[in-house]
Design a protein that fits this description.
With 319 residues, the protein is an alpha/beta fold. It contains ten helices and 14 strands. Strands 7-6-5-8-4-1-2-3-9 form a nine-stranded mixed sheet, with helices on both faces. Strands 11-10-12-13-14 form a five-stranded parallel sheet. The structure holds flavin-adenine dinucleotide. The site of flavin-adenine dinucleotide has 27 residues, from helix 7, helix 8, strand 13 and helix 10. Belongs to the ETF alpha-subunit/FixB family.
């Protein structure tokens, strides 16, 4: 069976394989036999092998070196390009995170291959589905040059276990001077919160300008906590200083695709939709019945968020 390389992403806090990787392994299985590629500082692969085996990695290719850790993404792209040259895989699948997309772009240049970014589905014949123009168009595209490279949008494929051997192979890592031009001087790991990661959460509750203040975001957090959800925010809420930028959802923020997205005090501008409209179910709370978000919502509540959201939180918590 053809080999498909899957780049592994591990959590920065050392808590193991990120869900985006399990999704990528699941999607890759339609194209062939996944080989999980673990690239990082010495010790990165320890503790991730079991999860990779459970989700279908026939092989685990381990390239560990201080150089990979010390210089942003260039060394990873270089090692992956060498693997593509040595192994001629049928495809490469990479989680569609900011780092993943940068690595994929560099890999495409190095290998002279076509690449499809932010895909939501991959078919057995290699055809990928993409959502374009802020969701107005669904594109089916296929790479015609080189080794197809895909970045898979988070939460678009449900991870499915399929136990495999996960035979470990060591990859020789030699990083060129060209890949050592930007050195990492410090890493700040975001404080671990009890809430799920925004891009991986199955429920997201987002607040917009209608929330009106940073203090009032506690209403959004209260509903999120009653549901075990992540908190998101619109750009207007972020620009107004109500919530940190790392929680912004939209074209210039994070892309989410949860089972349930609750938009509170958000009008539904196209740039916001771009980051959340592939959510499976959308609920909107807005006091303006004409707000564009209602065109997109599966369920809408017209009302003041200061009344509706605490009442909903109370009902959910009481269950
Ligand atoms: P508003 O549009 O002001 O809407 C607030 C809503 O709250 C209104 O519908 C109002 O009826 C409702 N409301 C007010 N008070 C209450 C209440 N008490 N109870 C219930 N409802 C209430 N935006 C993003 O979100 N993400 C992006 O990534 C992003 N990227 C952008 C990139 C570019 C290049 C540009 C030009 C814009 C971008 N924007 C982005 C901004 C976007 O165009 C909108 O300005 C923004 O999404 C509006 O945020 P909002 O819905 O919170 O605010």
């Amino acid at each position: 069976m053809a080999e498909v390389l899957v780049l592994v992403e591990t959590a920065p806090d050392g808590s193991g394989v990120r869900k985006t990787t399990l999704e990528a392994l699941t999607a890759a299985r339609v194209l062939g036999e996944p080989s999980a590629v673990v690239l990082g500082a010495p010790g990165t692969a320890a503790g991730v092998k079991d999860a990779l085996a459970e989700y279908g990695a026939a092989k685990v290719l381990v390239g560990e070196s201080d150089d990979i850790d010390a210089y942003l993404v260039a060394p990873k792209a270089e090692v992956l390009a060498q693997l593509v040259a040595d192994r001629s895989p049928a495809a490469v699948v990479i989680p569609s995170t900011p780092e993943g997309k940068e690595i994929a772009g560099r890999l495409a240049i190095k290998t002279g291959s076509g690449f499809l970014t932010d895909v939501t589905e991959i078919a057995a014949d290699g055809t990928a589905t993409q959502v374009a123009f802020a969701g107005a168009t669904i594109v089916h595209a296929k790479v015609t040059t080189g080794t197809p490279i895909y970045t898979l949008r988070g939460n678009s494929v449900a991870p499915e276990a399929a136990p495999a051997a996960a035979e470990e192979e060591t990859v020789t890592v030699s990083v060129s001077d060209a890949a050592k031009q930007t050195r990492v001087v410090d890493r700040v790991v975001e404080q671990k919160s009890d809430r799920p990661d925004l891009t991986e959460a199955s429920i997201v509750v987002s607040g917009g300008r209608g929330v009106a203040s940073a203090e009032n975001f506690s209403i959004i957090e209260g509903l999120a906590d009653s549901l075990g959800a992540a908190v998101g925010a619109s750009r207007a809420a972020v620009d107004s200083g109500f919530y940190p930028h790392s929680f912004q959802v939209g074209q210039t923020g994070k892309t989410v695709s949860p089972q349930l997205y609750i938009a509170v005090g958000i009008s539904g501008a196209i740039q916001h939709r771009a980051g959340m409209q592939t959510s499976k179910s959308i609920v909107a709370v807005n006091k303006d019945p004409e707000a564009p978000i209602f065109e997109l919502a599966d369920f809408g509540v017209v009302g003041d968020l200061n009344t509706v959201v605490p009442a909903a939180t109370e009902q959910i918590t009481a269950r």
